[in-house]
Amino acid sequence: MSLAEAAFIQAVDGVPLKIKLARAERKRKLKAVGLVLPLFLFVVITFLSPLLVMTLKSVENEETFGRLDRTREALASWSGQDLPDEAAFAALAADLKIAGEQRLAGEIAKRINYEFPGAQSKFKTITRKVAAMETGPYRETFLSTDAAWGNPKLWRVIQGASGKYTAYYWLSAVDLRQGASGIEQVPANQAVFLDVYGRTFWIAGLVTGLTLVLGFPVAYLLATQPASRANVLMIFVMLPFWTSLLVRTTAWFVLLRNEGPLNDLAQLLIGSRFDMIFTRFATILAMTHIQLPFTLLPIYSVMKTIPPSHVRAARSLGAGPFLAFWRVYFPQTVPGIAAGCLLTFILSLGYYITPALVGGPRDQMVSNYVSYYMNNIINFGQASALGATLLIITLVLYWAYNRLVGIDKMKLG
Amino acid sequence: MAYLPQLGLPAYASASERAWRLFFFAFCGLVLLFLISPILIVLPISFNPTPFLSFPKDDWSLRWYEDFFFNDRWTTAVKNSVIIAFFSTILATSLGTLAALGLSRPNFPARAAVMAVLISPMIVPVVITAAALFFFYANPLMVTSQPLLILNNTYAGVILAHTLLATPFVVITVTATLTGFDQSLTRAGASLGGSPALVFRRVILPLIAPGVISGALFAFVTSWDEVICVLFIGSSDQRTLPRQMFSGIREMISPTITAAAAVLIALAVVMLVTVELLRRRTERLRGIRT
User: Which of A103, A260, B117, B187 is the most buried (most CB within 10 A)?
Assistant: First the structure.
């Protein structure tokens, strides 16, 4: 019976069988989608949309937009190079008066202070002063209070902050700023973030390399030993894997301290102690320890699928042990190496706890700076911009992982 | 003739091959030691009677364990951790298992893309997730500028955050169990007159149960270990065990952290054994089928 004939076969209720089949198929598909939908919506609403909100926050003037409208209008025709006119001073005074009454002047001052260090105290003084003033002249009052009000740069910052959007946080995240004539590099003593990104990549790369060098031989050992022995050795890998990250970091913290067991041992053997805690060495050592199972396990599961007969065949055809390994065995492990290393690299880029607890000030990574701006300085715009750059880097790598390895292949334990 | 160890090599192996093999074993032994020793070394230190983080010299003491089990600061932290981990495990396991069941149906539309979205909370650095959630939880309903609901500094907020972080683990584990699942068993159940609910309860669930339990354990451990979200969106009321350990290292170095670490290591051993037993059970069930 051909497909064309099947189209004419009818079910009991007179509907062609082909349509009935399609209906049943659609119903099954809808049911499958219905099962996934709750989690999908949960992830979209409480994860993807907040990430979007955070990214938007990094280009918005949340503290100042709508609160400096008069000033913005008065500055619309300003050249940007010389001293603004009395109208601009009067407008800023009016804006600050209202902001002062609504207790929002502090937020404005803080925002301007990011771009013009020292502005915070000048804003505080002037807000108090204009609150008591009924009429002008404002320009003279401002200038006699602080000479900085005559600085066109401060006015450019105010003008920039009065709009809805700003590029300040993103420029700042890559050590750039808006200068008098276009975008320029920030002075070397203020440039921090490019160094932080470089450090983050360097640490993540080094940890990935170390986990590969240490993990590959062990994966090979586990894959080639008889099952009974491999299962016992596997405990050495799986126990750290199941132990809390904080416990492992605590363990390294205790071990590497100046009065810790490792230094006691060093004192006993060679009579001197080393500064190990709060160093780059401690950060990398602890991170390597934590990430080792993540690199090792994908390599191991690929190695388990390689038949031992391949290497035996190569040997019987005259290859030496090294050649047989390198030309026959090793190429088959590459998918596992890619999966393990990429996963470790992606996870290492986002480390926070370990550098915070065992690293020094020069070992803090991007995540630590995000946390610093979120919780210590309370500069949400800068935290968001740094977070968004790290997010984009991570998503690009995730996409690559997906293309190269496929999420379906991801296994745990 | 000198005795040559066999080292699992064939009889024709050359001397250099044997030397290389010996080096390989030694290297692997050192790496395995590196993996396990930090965890083991904490254990004796936790019995030191003096407030120094070093090996006990003369006598042993349960002093720090007493502090861990009876000091309010630590017992509250344990209680908080249990409450938060319990609810996020239930939520994550239900959502994750349903999604995995849907994803493993044949011809699921745009499967790879949907899967990529569902796994993404595991990949995005937790600090970024925590920062984004902090902004979102300030006004989660987003209908009015004055928030009708604030999830920051609440148990619900931390539980939802942990649920989000834990679901990828459930999806991955249950999907892995379902890849070997014989769909004809479902059809057989249906053809014998079972309703979809009955078939799920009596046929599908017993077969995927080990995967679901493993997933639930992963979800539990994810929440149980998590500290960054608690730092960002929780207040001191939601202080969990990892949060307490974090400040135990950062602010005041109390040796009680070593006792806490030892208790958590014991818990990890229990988890490891459970997951291993479940894995064997899955293999056995599959063995019966083929």
Answer: A260
Residue ranges in chain A whose pLDDT is less than 50:
none
Q: Which pLDDT does position B148 carry in this prediction? A: 83
Beta carbons of A103 and A67 less than 8 angstroms apart:
no
8 A C-beta contact, residue A200 and residue A346 = no
Please tell me the class of the B73-289 domain: mainly alpha
pLDDT of residue B287: 61
For residue A43, the chain B residues in CB contact (below 8 A) are: 117-118, 120-121, 164, 167
A40 contacts B221? CB cut-off 8 A: no
Q: Which residues of chain B have a CB within 8 Å of the CB of A215?
A: 31
Structure confidence at residue A2 (pLDDT): 58
State residue B155's pLDDT score. 96
* Low pLDDT (below 50) residues in chain B: 1-2, 289-290
Per-residue model confidence (pLDDT) at position A6: 57
Residue with tokens 């609504």: A102
Q: Which distant-in-sequence residues (6+ apart) come within 8 Å of A87 by Cβ?
A: A74
Strands A182-185 and A176-179: antiparallel
Helix axes B155-179, B205-225, angle to 10 degrees: 140
Spacing of C-alpha B172 from chain mean position: 12
A193-409, which class in CATH?
A: mainly alpha
Q: In whole angstroms, what is the distance from residue A146 CA to residue A157 CA?
A: 17
A251 interaction partners in chain B (CB closer than 8 Å): 38-39, 41-42, 261
Provide the residue ranges of all domains of chain B, joining segments of one domain with +.
73-289
- In degrees rounded to 5, what are phi and psi of residue A405? -105, -45
The answer to whether A115 touches A61, Cβ cutoff 8 Å, is no
**Rounded distance between C-alpha atoms, residue A304 and residue A306, angstroms:** 6
Peptide bond into A137 cis (omega under 30): yes
C-alpha–C-alpha distance, residues A403 and A61, integer Å:
38
Give this complex's ipTM. 0.90
CA distance, residue B2 to nearest chain A CA (Å): 23
**C-beta neighbour count of A200 within 10 angstroms:** 23
Tokens describing residue B146: 């004055």
Which residues in B lie closer than 8 A to residue A253 (C-beta atoms)? 249
Q: What is the largest CA-CA distance in chain A?
A: 100
Radius of gyration (C-alpha) of chain B in whole angstroms? 25
Q: A-B interface: how many C-beta pairs under 8 angstroms?
A: 272
Using an 8 Å Cβ cutoff, are B178 and B104 in contact? yes
Q: Where are the domains of chain A?
A: 3-57, 69-166, 193-409
**d(Cα B174, Cα B99) in Å, to the nearest integer?**
9
| Cβ(B198)–Cβ(B122) below 8 Å | no
Q: Which residue among A238, A371, A398 places its CB closest to the CB of B272? A: A238
